[in-house]
């Protein structure tokens, strides 16, 4: 990939805790980054800035298309605009 090509939106999945020992939430973080290491670093910095005490990241990959539904559609759009988009949801039991 050369510098003129648009980079894909990266998605990172995992779990986050608002306070240590609290209830976990599922998380999808979407952003555009030059490599996986930068993506993980920016994701962790953004989660900390949003007040999450702990994060456990499981998978990282490139999105293969635009999501069909909210809130992921807006998160994807935000990532294309340079934001680090965070989507949280209840963890299945």
Task: Give a description of the structure.
It is a single chain. With 93 residues, the chain is α+β, with helices and mostly antiparallel strands. The protein has a domain at 29-90. It contains 2 helices and 4 strands. It has helices at 36-49, 72-80, and strands at residues 10-17, 24-31, 54-62, 85-90. Strands 3-1-2-4 form a 4-stranded antiparallel β-sheet, sandwiched between helices. Strand 1 and strand 2 form a beta hairpin. The longest helix is centred in the middle third of the chain and has 14 residues, at 36-49. The protein starts with 9 loop residues before the first strand and ends with a strand. The model has no long low-confidence stretch (mean pLDDT 93).
Strand content: 25-35%
- What is the β-strand count? 4
Question: Residue-averaged pLDDT, rounded?
Answer: 93
Q: Overall 3D geometry?
A: globular
Ends distance: 41 Å
Radius of gyration from the alpha-carbon trace, in angstroms: 13 Å
List SSEs in N-to-C order.
EEHEHE
Major pleated sheet: 4 strands, antiparallel
Task: Record the strand order, biggest sheet.
Answer: 3-1-2-4
The level of helicity is 10-25%
Helical region count?
Answer: 2
Protein name: Transcriptional regulator
